């Protein structure tokens, strides 16, 4: 899966004031990512507020994104949840529309055992027509997918091709890289650790802050891939504060405000999320001035 090397971006879903999807802004945002050198896009990952979209809305966003991208760069669709039967049906019936893979988050809230996580992904892998990217994000799901479970899945199912790791646990990253089968990819799920993860051997990043700063994120990932960590370090440090501010009041609230400042629609989000407070807006404004 060479298409998963480098910088991917988990696209936000722009909304109008009435809560409907703002497709005009989504189109311009997609173009901004491609012009900024992003290698592939993830449509309707966590950052896309997918949990607040109904199935018909998701189909429409996937179809619009595919049509507007028009094969200029690869696409990944986010399909995950804690109802295994429902997710199996969704991946089974997913119309590929030029998508190359499915990003599927580990089941949340239920807190399954490692065997439960394995059996969930086993059912998904057996039903899917496209390659599967695992997604481990314990801070959101309430449970961690262990390195042993990740590697077991990677070895047992040839269509499980990568894992997006957002555990923040470098011992865990190292175990996956040591034990994984050849060709299976480790992808960073946290912007601030892209550089050290790629130094260990990760393939790249699926970024949030890349929505607002695609050129910086793509340049960072490409420099790391070339082994040029000295130049990459400067960009890494430059992005640290704005990345923190993106998450201080929840994702994608912060990055949506940055996008509004850059002219990409309004920072509308769907409940239970709310826009960032005036205090955070002020801090973001100040850091955006620093970044130019």
TrEMBL record:
Signal sequence interval, chain numbering: none
Residues that coordinate or bind pyruvate: 47, 206
UniProt entry keywords in alphabetical sequence: Amino-acid biosynthesis, Cytoplasm, Diaminopimelate biosynthesis, Lyase, Lysine biosynthesis, Schiff base
Site positions (Part of a proton relay during catalysis): 46, 109
Pathway where this protein functions: Amino-acid biosynthesis; L-lysine biosynthesis via DAP pathway; (S)-tetrahydrodipicolinate from L-aspartate: step 3/4
InterPro entries assigned to the protein according to its UniProt record, in alphabetical order: Aldolase_TIM (IPR013785), DapA (IPR005263), DapA-like (IPR002220)
Subcellular location: Cytoplasm
Main location: cytoplasm
Molecular function, one GO term: 4-hydroxy-tetrahydrodipicolinate synthase activity
Function: Catalyzes the condensation of (S)-aspartate-beta-semialdehyde [(S)-ASA] and pyruvate to 4-hydroxy-tetrahydrodipicolinate (HTPA).
NCBIfam families registered for this protein in UniProt: dapA
Family (UniProt): Belongs to the DapA family.
Protein name per Swiss-Prot or TrEMBL: 4-hydroxy-tetrahydrodipicolinate synthase
Highest classification ranks of the organism: Bacteria, Pseudomonadati, Bacteroidota, Sphingobacteriia, Sphingobacteriales
Gene designation per UniProt: dapA
